[in-house]
Automatic annotation (TrEMBL):
This is Alkylation response protein AidB-like acyl-CoA dehydrogenase. Residues 142-151 have a biased composition (Basic and acidic residues). Residues 11-100 form the Acyl-CoA dehydrogenase/oxidase N-terminal domain. Transmembrane segments: none annotated. It comes from Anoxybacteroides tepidamans. It comes from the Bacteria.
Amino acid sequence: MNDLYHLFLRTEREKRLQQQAAQLSKQFQQRAHWHDEQAVFPFENFAQLKKAHFLSLTVPKQYGGEEISLYEFLLVQETIAQGDGATALSLGWHLGIVMNLAEQKKWPKEVFARICKEIVEKQVLLNSAQSETATGSPARGGKPETTAEKRNGGWVISGRKTYTSLAPALDYFIVSATIKETGEVGNFLIPKTASGLKIEETWNTLGMRGTRSDDLILENVVVDEKALVEILGSSQQKGRAQGWLLHIPACYLGIAIAARNEAIAFAKSYQPNTLPHPIAEVPEVRRKIAQIDIELMAARHFMYSVADRWDRHPDKREKMKEELAAVKYVATNIAINAVDMAMRVVGGQSLFASHPLQRYYRDVRAGLHNPPADDLTISIVASRSFNKNVGEDPTTSERA
């Protein structure tokens, strides 16, 4: 694994984080098949993550967290995904949301401070519950049918959310709802202990089965007035630059690396009786592995360079939306292709249910359905392309 990181580990802290993640990842890998086959949430993995204090990695230092950078976050995600993609993607939602909340400072300070303290001291888990059947992905701007009504000094919330990753393990749900009185859309912080909140087990999918992205049902859930933590204005609905979402391509690149490693190990050890040597010496096999590595190099250098730019130039972040979307587009599609080529190297054995490559194949395809979707990326990049040329001075771009 180290040979893949010698160009990306720049500091002692990055080396430490990646090594810690690698140790956990190896243990997760041993259980990944069972969690996938049974479609159960990896509670054991998260118990280890909590013990290692990984849930507070993105909590600001002022609240006792590590406050890791986006670049460091991606190193962790990519490494853990090599052991278990579902665990990495699940962890990424929690860590990414905390990172985004710290950057945006949209929540009341006392509420965010309290949640951060709970994460540090109790390693609690939170995630957003935004998607609905009628609206689809929140990235497309649909208004939630889940409603919030002001009543007796508090809020009464009713609705149904889909794709609620980590559902059985969450301590808090960040639920989007349309406020009846004003028509505004707000985010509400709801604890799992709230009366009227329940999880319906609907997650029976082809890939990422261990995320347990079940449905969240809210039946007249009563919360206090402070549960409303944010009003989502037009800028949120249209979409702003969100660096934390790079945890998604990092996860799928990690899965692709695991597939690549599996294919190389197989090629080094498999020697049919028609050859005097392992298939690692067959030119076509070497070509396929080299093609995988070249594409992974391109995707990883792109991703990490964009993350580094995000970290070093906060003033330029709002102009990076297209680059962030493009990273996800490039990395996810390259990851899918890499897993496919790895299966071609291994051949028919990769189709057996007991072989990890078939899990990688199913898991990596889930990336196509994480935000932003390919068509949205193409749309926003095309809009920028036709609005002005890259590198052109906007003050001189008008033509008669």
